Request: fold
Amino acid sequence: MSVENSTHADVSARAPHRHAAYDEATFARLAADAEQIIARYPQARSALLPMLHLVQSEDGYVSPAGIAFCGQMLSLTTAEVSAVATFYSQYKRRPNGEYTVGVCTNTLCAVMGGDAIWQELSEHLEVGHDETTPDGKVTLERIECNAACDYAPVVMVNWEFFDNQTPASAVETVDRLRAGEPVAPTRGASSVCSFKAMSRVLAGFPDGRADEGVGAGEATVRGTRLAREHGWTAPAFPGEGGAGTDETAGMQPEATPGTTEPEPKPRAKRPAGTTPRTRTAAGAPATRTAPEAAKAAGTPEVGAEQSSAQRSPEGPADSSTAAQDKKQQSEQAKES
Amino acid sequence: MSEPTTLAPVLSDIWDADRSWTLQTYLAHGGYQGLRAALRQDPATVVATVKDSGLRGRGGAGFPSGMKWGFLPPPDGGPRYLVVNADESEPGTCKDIPLMMASPQHLIEGVAITSYAIGCNHAFIYVRGEVLHVYRRLLRAVEEAYAAGYLGKDVLGSGYDLDVTVHAGAGAYICGEETALLDSLEGLRGQPRLKPPFPAVAGLYARPTVVNNVETIASVPGILRGGAGWFTSMGTEKSAGHGLFSLSGHVTRPGQYEAPLGITLRELLDMAGGVREGHQLKFWTPGGSSTPIFTAEHLDIPLDYESVQKAGSMLGTRALQIFDETTSVVRAVTRWTEFYKHESCGKCTPCREGTFWLAQVLQRLEAGQGTSEDIDLLLDLCDNILGRSFCALGDGATSPITSAIQYFREEFEAGTHTPADVLFPLERSALFTYTPRRGAGQLAGVHA
Reply:
């Protein structure tokens, strides 16, 4: 589908246009961001996931205009972009609330009380899974394990950790969010940001808040503290005081960078032509990714090679003879 | 029995330090000495050291890391990649996320060393998108490392160049499977690839690629700093070194306990204050929901790769989820199965269809409406998924079911006549007091 960039500047969530597109100023601003994202990768298409986060930072969901935008920037069809967007649960197909409130209802959290929290919140907010409160503030979700089981039951608000929750604490959190009050996660930034602001960070644009909040919660450091109490340490590094001697390690001269060590010598042999890619010299041909070029190209080619797994191996580094034989056998086995 | 095993904080050693996530704190605790040591050696020597250390993958499979690196074909002039699997999503697993939040520099140093060892000039860290603050910390850690010369052009004056890109996923358990992760990183739906070719031969962008778990890579700096012998002085002969053991669930003091491999759950439970007061251990997972469950009879099994496997499960990610006698095993297994059904990528039939059917059968057993054939049906379904799926997700989906039937068959039989929440009232398992609302009838007109 070709994308026109003129008539439908206003994108309505309720009535998505087939040819929805951003207005010129928005397009230019997002295109500049997208170019930065693309430059992080040797191949442009790798930018698609962060670019979809970028779209959500603009529209609060993966909008038709955003899909078209990604397609245009990466020379993909809107179908190809949609195929990716619909695979991942963080990409929303309808406008999301300002805050995604996710209750972990995977087994461990559910058993510890997550089911009760879910039920309470769902009744309190009068919405179900992936539904948004009428004020547009909260989208409630049942979420899967979020790697904080030692803090069960866990609730995530815009993917910040709210540990050791109860139905009452969760209700208080959503009430405060709906009242527009700042809410602090247990482990995370000093306050929860909006869904759009979060999406921009996930697109790889730091918001300068990395130094906020704790390094570790109580459960995270339990083993470390217990070891200190008992004087348990890992074996000392040879010639050093030991990994477990927290205070003394800081005193060692080696701990200061660039002091006593001999200058490391370059040993790695780099064959010609292996100039490392840098952030500015991305491998993706700039012309292909520029919006102008994409527009000029018109309809992208459909059905081109996608995963690099579909690529035929080239050169000795890509495939040994043994690997080839195995692949052959495996393919024969599949066909038989 | 030998003397009791104690904790051995290595990665977790600076987690209680002030501003533990900063480069400054990391350097004050000996950070980047491993990289300095590595840069003084040939890359091949670094690989040999890691091989000698016996470090095995900490992401679940336990494959020897040095050997994995050694599988890369000889350099041909083209790019080679390191991709760190930071997509921690296995139910029960909660070690990499706190590690990256508390001390991301451990990982960044490991990335620099590993990249140098395998001849990679552009490494990627693929972190799940559902951990905003962890992503912030990683971006900041990379920024700090660039500014201090540990990344970028001419790392520490060695002539070696390395770029690192931190990439946020967007919610998909399957992307923890290494080839699905690579497809996802290439901007596609995260579906696993047919192997071979393995990533070592044709991985990211069809180039030689090493994919390693966060904790694996974060363990590398210590090995370079202390030597292979330092690492092998911990753990067992075949399962060397330290590992994070994550205790969660019905345990008095859940949390991260870093110990030599081979420690037992009994020892860990002692440290964590035991099962919650007034209750007894019923079942547990040694390494996440995809590893067959264990019971109280397995308390003394050394938690190393071989011993756990010999006892019929897998060490996995050392995600020790503890459930006491108030927990319905049918409810637990049903919920895990719903997870696998939700996360099945749909690429292969046994997993896509099989998890769907497993969930339906389990749901009726949980509701006390199962049939007398349901247990056999479950086992038959599992038999048609295990070993017949495209990737390990399908296999993993069968583990909790077959093991739970093995140890608690009578609870599944009870599912033919009595709902699980009647046998095991939900409020008894929860960590807070509440009154569950059972059934729509009882709910009518009731609002808290």
Summary: Chain B has 20 helices and nine strands.
